[in-house]
Amino acid sequence: TAMGESSMDPTISSPDSTAQQDSLFSMMDVFLISLITGLLTYWFFFRKKKEDVPDLPKMQSVAAPVRDSSFIEKMKKTGRNIVVFYGSQTGTAEEFANRLSKDAHRYGLRGMAADPEEYDLSDLSRLSEIDKSLAVFCMATYGEGDPTDNAQDFYDWLQEADADLSGLRFAVFGLGNKTYEHFNAMGKYVDKRLEELGAQRIFELGLGDDDGNLEEDFITWREQFWPAVCEHFGVEATGEESSIRQYELVVHTDVNMNKVYTGEMGRLKSYENQKPPFDAKNPFLAQVTENRKLNEGGERHLMHLELDISNSKIRYESGDHVAVYPANDSSLVNQIGEILGTDLDTVMSLNNLDEESNKKHPFPCPTSYRTALTYYLDITNPPRTNVLYELAQYATDAGEQERLRRMASSAAEGKALYLSWVVEARRNILAILQDMPSLHPPIDHLCELLPRLQARYYSIASSSKVHPNSIHICAVTVEYETKTGRLNKGVATNWLKGKVPQPQQDGSSSLVPMYVRKSQFRLPFKPSTPVIMIGPGTGIAPFIGFIQERAWLKQQGKEVGETVLYYGCRHEREDYLYREELARFQKEGVLTQLNVAFSRDQAEKVYVQHLLKKNKENVWKLVNEGMAHIYVCGDARNMARDVQNTFYEIVSEFGSMSQPQAVDYVKKLMTKGRYSLDVWS
């Protein structure tokens, strides 16, 4: 029967077999549908992953900044043809950009300064839609050849971009410092990359050196830049530089004091009503819980401060920087007020005359002159030449007026006078007002001209593993006599020195506005990797954090590699910082080597590089066999360079290499993140 059934005509089926087939089909259907659904689901997710991963950075870079509008549309709307972008960390590049955009009107052109963070820079390809258009870039280099925070997006875009910028005309002025390894890296990169993307350079790259005379470098570049612009566009200067106010003064006689800024950096009342996340525009008010003098003798004051960051949600890693917003000395502020015969408690606003500008005020307004001069304006650095030029009109004595104009001119004699009388004599605005008795500018114009007071960065001297709710600072107060016999004091360090811990919570005299800035200065990923730390003076700061962290790792049962410190100070009995802590770490076996150079305790000077040479075999063994990471912190001008040269010598001798090969070897260590610098000049 089985054979008969199987050979039956398939078109004729018994009710039984039909039911069987139906159930078979339904099972088959379910199976197939499930299989297809499963495959589709798998394919969908698999495909999604595959496509999304490479797209992520692009998606972020498009969506991240909240763009105001296209700078092209803005330029068209306001009749501008020159845009000056600035990459600025301390405000100088922004200042230069403002000066260049103001210059433009002398040539029948109209300029605007722009923060690249506020615009979509891919619009550069459209700049040629505007007649006689030009993009200028004032780019500062920060840290170890990095872009400034506000130029990071622009830098990322340049690296990824495959845009055609063939219609774009550009020029770049870089702001750097020759004592650093990567001098003007950002300016050089922008200049080279724009050309690679097809843009036309209309004037050579300017390289400003802050170790020399940055102001003079800028003026020299600028006085050749404008004639090149004129030649390119066939325009001529329309006349002399004229003083054009950028802001107008509004005095508030009847104002609600709750609407007045009293030192906040961003949001009004942000110091009374603190809300995370905390950053440059929204600093956290940290209580100083400890402020002790570290040195036992000598003229200097070296100090250790501890800032309480409980309940702030602030996270930090060893090697990061803490930024603090200081306040100017009240006696300097009062003296400026007296000379200018002003009631410093007048509440006012400075409003931008260009209503289209993103920058409505030069600093938070409304506020009082006292608040502006205390918290918002830099009154201690020697003013730049544009400030002198604008102030000259207010000198009633013809000789003083001429002298101010001459110092602001591009003539060699004027530059020399500015260098000696202002820069080398370290004359700040108060000293200039005192030494030119006929000079009485309106205080509002002076406030418009002075640069913003900047945050100061310190290497954090603690580990968050050991001190999660506290950030430690190690600093030396700056105080020196100038050529004019005046005593100049560092703004931040003297302000910090006066921060005394308060037993009550309401002690505002012990509050410090601060935020954390991430750094690349990091301990090796594997605790077993040896580290060689070189940090004389306050350069020891991040290494206290590093050693604390390695001690903590050891307590956690981790295998911790050799931890070697090269430290230096002037005298063993005077300024040996963290002596007890270092001795304890050595006794506990965390600090495997402690090498200390006391530079002035004997006839010949002994520095950290001399101790490195003395231990050269051990140093080479750690670097070559142990794959040690090297860290250098402190003075960039001499120490960091001397230490690097010492490494060249050690590598050359023990690696049997020529000098160029040894240099290349050390540079490769830097590229691999095995030779890190945290230096300042």
Automatic annotation (TrEMBL):
Entry GO CC: cytosol
GO biological process: response to hormone
Pfam families noted in UniProt: FAD_binding_1, Flavodoxin_1, NAD_binding_1
Top-level taxonomic group: Eukaryota
The protein's Enzyme Commission number: 1.6.2.4
Keyword annotations of the record: Endoplasmic reticulum, FAD, Flavoprotein, FMN, Membrane, NADP, Oxidoreductase, Transmembrane, Transmembrane helix
GO molecular function: flavin adenine dinucleotide binding; FMN binding; NADPH-hemoprotein reductase activity
Transmembrane domains' residue ranges: 24-45
PANTHER family tied to this protein: NADPH--CYTOCHROME P450 REDUCTASE, NITRIC OXIDE SYNTHASE-RELATED
Domain Flavodoxin-like: 82-226
Protein name: NADPH--hemoprotein reductase
Domain FAD-binding FR-type: from-to ranges: 281-524
Cofactor(s) listed in the protein's UniProt record: FMN; FAD
